[in-house]
Structures are given as C-alpha cells and as structure tokens.
Amino acid sequence: MIIELTAGAIKAILMILAGLSLSLFLLYFERKGSALIQDRIGSNRATLTGLGKRMGMPNLGIINTTIADPVKMFTKEDFIPAGADKFLHTLSPFLSLFPVLITFVVIPFGDTILISGHHIDLEAANLNAGALYLLATIGLGVYGAALAGWSSNNRWALLGGIRATAQMISYELAMGLAIVSVIMTFGTLNLQEIVRGQGGVWFGFLPRWAIFSQPLAFILLLVAGAAESKRIPFDLPESESELIQGFFIEYSGGKQAVFMLTDFAEQALVAMLLTTFFLGGWQIPWLMRDGFHLPGGAFLALPALAISLMGVAAFLIKVVALCMFLGMVRWTLPRFRYDQLMRLGWKGLVPLGLFNLLVTAFVVVATGRVQ
Amino acid sequence: MPPFLYIFLGALAIVSALGVILQRNPIHSLLALIGTLMIVAILFIGEDAVVVGFLQIIVYAGAIMVLFLFVIWLLNLQVETGPTGHLALKLFGSLASALLMTELFFFLAPVHLQVKFTHEPAGYGSLASLAGKLFGDYLIAFEVTSVLLLAAVVGSVALARRIPAADDPRAASKAAS
Predict the structure, then answer these.
(1) pLDDT by residue (tens digit) across B12-55?
(2) B129 touches chain A (CB under 8 A)
C-alpha cells in the first residue's frame, strides 16, 4: 500500500516535471529554433561568466532562454491595472495553467515494470475513464483565458478573451470527435489499454499504430490540438497586430510568464495526446515483450527492464519530435482570419469528424468487435 | 468514499452554492456556480458514478457555463450596488421563499430523511453499465430526446438567421459574389 502510494506520488510529480521541462525546451526552441527557420541568430547574449565564449564555443542561447528569461520575468514588477478585478486578475493565470498540468497525469509513458515484486504501471493515474478525464480537464482550460480577458478591464483583453473562448469551444468539438473515433477503434477509455492495443504489426511489417488505421482522426486532432493551444496559425486570441497581446495584454512579470508557460505546456500536452492516441505511445515498432521481432524474421532478445526503459525513451522522443513539428508549423504558416478559423472549425473539421466517426462505427460493427 | 469526506464535500458544495446567490458580481457568482458543479461532480466520482461525474464536468462546467459567461458579457451585466426591485416584489419573494422552506422542512423531516451509505457492486457507474441502460432499457426515450434536441437546434438557427432585405446593398453584393 505504502509502496503503491509512494510510486503514485513519484509518478505524478515526475510527469508534471516532465511537462514543465518540456515547456522549457519549447521556450528554447521558440527562440533559437525560430531564429534558425527565419535565418536570424536569435538570443545570444547571456553566458555563464563568459566561459563558453572564452573556450571558443558558440553561444547557443541556452542560458538566455532557460535561466535568464524566467528569472527576469519573475523579478519584474507585477502590475494590476486600475479598475481590474484584482482577485480574478490574479487567479486567471493559474486557472489556465492548472488544468493543463493535471491532464499530464493520465498520459501513459511506459509499460508496466516490475520492481522488487511490485508491478508498477508507468502512468501516474491509471483511470478506467482516462479519455473522459482528459476531455473534462481540457474543457476547463477555457476559463483562464476568458477570465483573464474580462478581469483586465481592457477592451483588447476582453476581445482576446472572447476570441479565445469561442475558438476553444469550437475546436474542442472536433478534438472530442477525433478522440471518440480512437476510443471506438480500441473499445476502451483507458489510455494505457489504448496504447497496449497499438502493439503488434499488420501484414507482418506495419506497426498497429492508430495513425495508420485512423489517419483522418490524426489530422483532426493535430489541427484541433494546435487550435486548442492557441498557437499560430490559430493565435487569434493574442494576435499582436490587432489586439497587441490579446487576453494577457495587462499581465506583467510572473503572471505573464505563467501564461507563456501554459502555452508551451499545452503544446507539450497536444504532442503527448497525439503520441498516445496515434503514434503508439511507448510502443516501439516490432518490439514485443521479449525483444525485437524484425519483419525479415530476425529476432533480438532483450531483458525486460531494458524494454521498459526503451519504451519510456521512445515516448519522449516521439513527444519531442511532435513538439518540434508543431513549432515548425508555428513558424511557417501565417495567421488565419477569424471567419476562416470558424469556417475551418465548424464546416471543415466537425463534419469530417462526424464522417470519420460514422465510418469507424460501421467498420467496428462489420468486423464484429461489439459484444 | 468515507462518510467524513462526503460530508466535507457536501458542505463545500453548499457554501459554494451560497456564494452564487450572495455575491454581487455576476462573474463571481458564475465562478461559484462552476465550483459547485465541480464539487458535485467530484461527489459523483467518489460515489463510483465516474462517467456521470466526468460528463458533468465536460458538459456543465466546461460548456454550458461558458455559454453563461458569454450571456453575461453580451448583456454587459454590472455589479449590483444596492437593493433592487419594489417593496411589494420583495414581500412576495420573501413569502414565497418562506413557503418553500416550510415545504422543504416537512419533506426533509427526519422521518423521511434517512442517510444510508450503501455499497453498490463494482462497476456500478461504469461506462458499460451506463451504455447498457441508455441504449438498452431506455433506448426509445434516448432517441426521442436526441430528435427533440436536433429540432431545437434547427429551430434556433432558423429563428436567428437574418433574412436580408431586398434593397440592402450589402445583401445584393453578397448575392452577386
């Protein structure tokens, strides 16, 4: 009992720390990666006592973005504008960060491992209704942006808040439809079971990942997830050119940092969701419980612990790769117009999602996987 | 769920619900309402009605309350600073609430009110059992409700749709394009 509880607490903290450090990586990628894409140098000033420079190494801006940026933000003045609702103005950044952080706990990041006779599931909270939990917490993310916009007593902020709310409500629908198609394919709401269902191969070589059986749902969740995390091309709530900074225009210092952290954590979360639902989570192609079964018939035996750890590594690699893909999308595409955004959401993604759901239902019934 | 936790959450729900009616700022009231709904959802989940609890969060706390927020913004409701309404209205209101309290008091008298902590079988509130009820025992009621909701959606869209006047230049340009 004690061991299970301790393991649960450690896993939950680990998962949240993983999300936070991934956010830090994304902050770095945002600065230097975007500079690379746009042929700039990017942040290259702060160094740790100039040590790297003296040794002739290029300044990669790691100190800038991972230490100097957050420290600078948290030591700035925390300003609350006149006429603002002080209580809600202070509450909203945390109201937007909290649902994202608690969503991380249902993401399975590895198979069950055996430690001194205890089977420990590498998922902080193995809920039977994991997918429902996920949809519930993502749905609560709206209030942070909405109330930040309203409580700032600023018209641009309010406009940004309204835009954020309408956008997130609209794309949540497409997101839910995509997730439901996957749930129907695997017949379970348990995320660990969904990942387990993606083990094995089709035709002897193709991994049973849901991206191959549900390609349309993958695209739906990718687009809806990008919209849900309010990133370019879906960053209308904060579009600098018209709303200056949108719903968090009146935030400074640490609270502004919390909003930025929410953005990056949401991006990490979307990558984790895509990995879990479509890219096989911690599954490695052709790796079974005893070792590699390569398509040619070759077999490579591996110890069980190594397989588990490789699974965790595979999960992280997939998540980081998807994060970088989402970042590249951000630095490539221009921003949508608001009517285009709404048309894409309601007339594009939702009908496609319904169609996908219908086809999935027919296939599931036709293959006789319903009790 | 242990009884003391149940009572604690129930008390929290009541305090939160009081916050809905006692606060002057409509947005604060709305937040208190969201809090109430969340606590009730946690109560559901604690009592093994997991799916109902999560659906409560998704539908009520996550979607319908956002609609409330939009309505409050749209009507531009301000903080109420003083007493509102006529004296007669208040008199009638207090009379009605006194009646309601009396009725509740008699209905919830100790004779009727018997709190029992029963143990339901495992999987009592799971998705499978809920689906069995919804698509088995109450299939027709479920389907009729869905038709009703569809009719409501179509009706509200039809009512909200603006029919452009024939001499409206904007409508003419739209028709031409």
Answers:
(1) 999 999 999 888 888 889 999 999 999 999 988 887 788 888 88
(2) no
Query: Which helix (H) or strand (E) is A301 found in, with range?
Result: strand A299-301
Q: Which residue has the tokens 């940026």?
A: A69
C-alpha–C-alpha distance, residues A363 and A184, integer Å: 10
Q: Band of the pLDDT at A299, cuts 50, 70, 90?
A: confident
Look-up of token digits 């993604």: A349
What does the pLDDT look like over A128-138, one tens digit per residue? 788 888 888 98
Mean pLDDT in residue range A224-228: 88
What per-residue confidence (pLDDT) applies to B167? 63
- A177 Cβ contact partners less than 8 Å away, ≥ 6 residues apart: A217, A220, A349, A350, A353, A354, A356, A357
The answer, for B130 touching chain A at a CB cutoff of 8 Å, is no
Nearby residues of A245 by Cβ (< 8 Å), 6 or more positions away: A156, A160, A238
Out of A85, A128, A147, whose CB is closest to B126?
A128
Instruction: State the pLDDT confidence band at A46, using cuts at 50, 70 and 90.
Output: low
Partners of A142 on chain B (C-beta within 8 Å) are 62, 66
pLDDT-derived band at A332, boundaries 50, 70, 90: confident
Smallest CA–CA distance from B69 into chain A, residue: A146
B52 to chain A: closest CA residue: A132
- pTM here is 0.84
Distance CA B159, CA B161 (A): 6
DSSP letters, chain B, are --HHHHHHHHHHHHHHHHHHHH-SSHHHHHHHHHHHHHHHHHHHHHTT-HHHHHHIIIIIIIIIHHHHHHHHHHHTPPPP-S--S-HHHHHHHHHHHHHHHHHHHHHTSTTT-------PPTTTTSHHHHHHIIIIITHHHHHHHHHHHHHHHHHHHHHH-----TT-HHHHHHHH-
Residue A120, helix vs strand vs coil = strand
Q: Are A237 and A244 in contact (CB under 8 A)?
A: no
Provide ipTM, 2 decimals.
Answer: 0.80
pLDDT at A205 over 90: no
CA A276 to CA A192: how far, in whole Å? Answer: 9
| Closest to A161 (Cα-Cα) out of A237, A234, A225 | A237
